[in-house]
Amino acid sequence: MDSDERPGTILSTxxxxxxxxxxxxxxLAVSVLGDPDIYPINFLAHDKRLLFRTNPGTKLAELTxxxxxAFEVDEIDADEARSVVVKGVARVIDAQSEIxxxxxxxxxxxxxxxxxxxxxxxxxxxHGRYFALGEEPERY
Length: 140
Prior knowledge:
By secondary structure, the protein is α+β, with helices and mostly antiparallel strands. It has a single domain (about 10-130), classed as Electron Transport, Fmn-binding Protein, Chain A (Pnp Oxidase, Chain A), CATH 2.30.110. It has 3 helices and 8 strands. It has helices spanning about 15-20, 60-65, 95-105, and strands at about 10, 25-30, 35-40, 45, 50-55, 70-75, 80-95, 115-130. The chain is globular, with a radius of gyration of 17 Å.
């Protein structure tokens, strides 16, 4: 029996970074004591790392308990889509010199609020897929 499943085309690491660099909204996945959470965040892909801003709260607390994270961004057009997943290690940027450098980047809060804490995700794995979109095939 022939399969009509088309799982997509694997993107190169370079193409995956291109998708990350041209987007600014994604989802951060964290897990503490086997209990996963997913947060929508705005981010910046810069120098082969991801940066976002946050404030004290659940997300930041979870990152300090378990700094191993996953991050996903999807890019969907009328007839094609790309999905990139980054696995890595998150750390709060606390050195003033690094904060000063991060302040120069075009990373602004998504909602009208002040967010004083920068978090950096240092990737350990970046992978993406490309999908040609279309209608479900007819059954034989």
